[in-house]
TrEMBL record:
Classification of source organism: Bacteria, Bacillati, Bacillota, Clostridia, Eubacteriales
GO MF term (any one): xanthine phosphoribosyltransferase activity
Gene behind this protein: xpt
Keyword Phosphoprotein among UniProt keywords: no
Name the UniProt record assigns to this protein: Xanthine phosphoribosyltransferase
Presence of the UniProt keyword Cytoplasm in the record: yes
Length: 189
């Protein structure tokens, strides 16, 4: 995780005690090499878990999801933040409230793409209070699929989402854990 660590140390910007900006390689410009490294790492950590589908939510999760799916040699499914209007597709729907953005969104996946025979790895760029993750896990549950685990690029451990979800028995692998952003600085675990 050499490259990812370097990028975070050199290019991330502490915006407040809650928010870390990583626009220069993850959230606005996407660095393909970093994404490939991330995908390989997730694949390695979950190898042998018989995952057959990677699941994320648009938009920022897609890049990470794609390289992970490539490394595992499985498809990537991304939840949409708008109900697909194409055809009258039957969808699973879940509600997410974002504390970070102070807004709610519904996320959707078509029922035909998530089924009871799936063994799913969820990936996302950030884990904060875990609302997005809970929404994605809820889609998996609705489909009767099996949630194998979760891969997160940057976990802000001080916001509690990871703790909550681990206590409920979900395996979460975070590549970078940040314990605080106090004093405008990154404090890694
Ligand atoms: P929350 O429950 O505390 O709101 O956090 P959640 O994990 O649900 O994240 C909400 C959105 O905010 C997500 O993006 C997430 O990636 C982003 N986010 C949370 N904390 C940070 C942070 O410290 N830095 C950055 N850069 N992003 C953060 P989203 O709504 O899914 O939007 P998109 O970017 O994927 O389109
Ligand atoms: Na995200
Ligand atoms: Na984001």
């Amino acid at each position: 995780m050499q490259l990812l660590l370097e990028k975070i140390k050199n290019e991330s910007i502490v915006v407040s005690e809650q928010i870390l900006r990583v626009d220069s390689f993850l959230n606005h410009i996407i660095d393909p090499e970093v994404m490939v490294e991330i995908g390989r790492e997730f694949a390695q950590r979950f190898r042998g878990a018989q995952i057959n589908k990677v699941l994320t939510v648009e938009a920022s999760g897609i890049a990470v999801g794609l390289t992970t799916a490539m490394a595992l040699d499985v498809p990537l499914l991304f939840a949409k933040k708008r109900k697909p209007t194409t055809l009258d597709q039957q969808c699973y729907q879940s509600h997410i409230y974002s504390f970070t953005k102070n807004e709610s969104v519904d996320i959707f996946v078509a029922k035909e793409y998530l089924t009871a025979s799936d063994r799913v790895l969820i990936v996302d760029d950030f884990l904060a209070r875990g609302e997005a993750l809970k929404g994605l896990a809820n889609l998996v549950e609705q489909a009767g699929a099996h949630l194998v685990g979760v891969g997160i690029v940057i976990e802000k451990a001080f916001q509690g989402g990871g703790k909550l979800l681990r206590e409920s028995g979900v395996r979460i692998e975070s590549l970078i854990k940040v314990n605080s952003l106090e004093g405008g600085k990154l404090h890694f675990e």
